[in-house]
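Why do we bother with holo predictions? Because pocket geometry can differ from the apo form. Keep that in mind while you read this record for zinc ion.
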Amino acid sequence: MLTVGVDVGGTSVRAGLVDAAGSVLDLRRAATPSGDDALEDAIAAVVGELAADHGWAPQRRPGQRRPGQRRPGQSRSGGVAAVGLAVAAFVATGRRQVHFSPHLSWRGAAVADRIERRVGVPVLLEHDANAAAVAEHRFGAAAGARVTTLVAIGTGIGGALLVGGELFRGAHGVAPELGHLRVVPDGRPCPCGKRGCWERYCSGTALVTTALELLVRWRGSAGPLATAATADPGRLSGRRVAAAARDGDPVARRAMQELARWLGEGLALVADIYDPQVVIIGGGVAESATLFLDEAREHYAATVTGAGYRPLARIRTSQLGDQAAIVGSALLARALIDG
Ligand SMILES: [Zn+2]
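The structure, written out:
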């Protein structure tokens, strides 16, 4: 029995056909359009492409089936039986609705129902970091861990917590919002309305902010990053800063050291709350982990409460990489058909 996991991100919609062992058998991708209808059409289209190429005929007849109810013969068909959507959004506790998403158009939207009507099979919603954490716990870097925290570092920070293999979502379904822990009082402004949030210091966006601050402070410094920033500061990206750090650019390397410091300090806060056995570092910035992870581990070990006298969390990078949310949401969707 196969399910489809869809990672609905701010720039792309990626759908994967996933088997019970967590293997991604096929992938489709589309650009994320703006507007609810266009976005839902794009999701239905990538799922439909997988369906068409793998011999599954979606039943586009709304209202025939309760959500999660198995279609006759579905479990023996060998086709796609359910779809999991991993979204960077506040997902309501029933996992049928999106309350709000900073990078997508949905506001108070009954997303699961709408996509079910389009694709004709049960649909489940999950926060993308939660989906990634489930996949890493089942098949990846957190296999067998009792308490796992996932920190997905990209444009911002996405967080997830698994206790005994189960997701912890808090009372209203939105925990843990790790990126907005305040690490610097009166620090850098954050789009959430606060100042000094962790993700303002530890993200791809933060790498750019730090690099630009350093270039002002070290006026006249040489190097490819200084040249690029002088030409067009608006075009610097976290990926570019990471590439420059890899090439030995002094400003970029210092920006990376700052990220390492704040990652370590933030993880020390996380350890005070959750005391995780394993911390998974995911997201796009994790692809550059060799540039910062050892240093972040040192900061974490030095600043965690009780440093030197307590067991430390193992801090690892994601094993499933940018497919973690696809695999996790496809895995969670299996619950709609397995029982
Ligand atoms: Zn914030």
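The first helix runs from residue 36 to 53.
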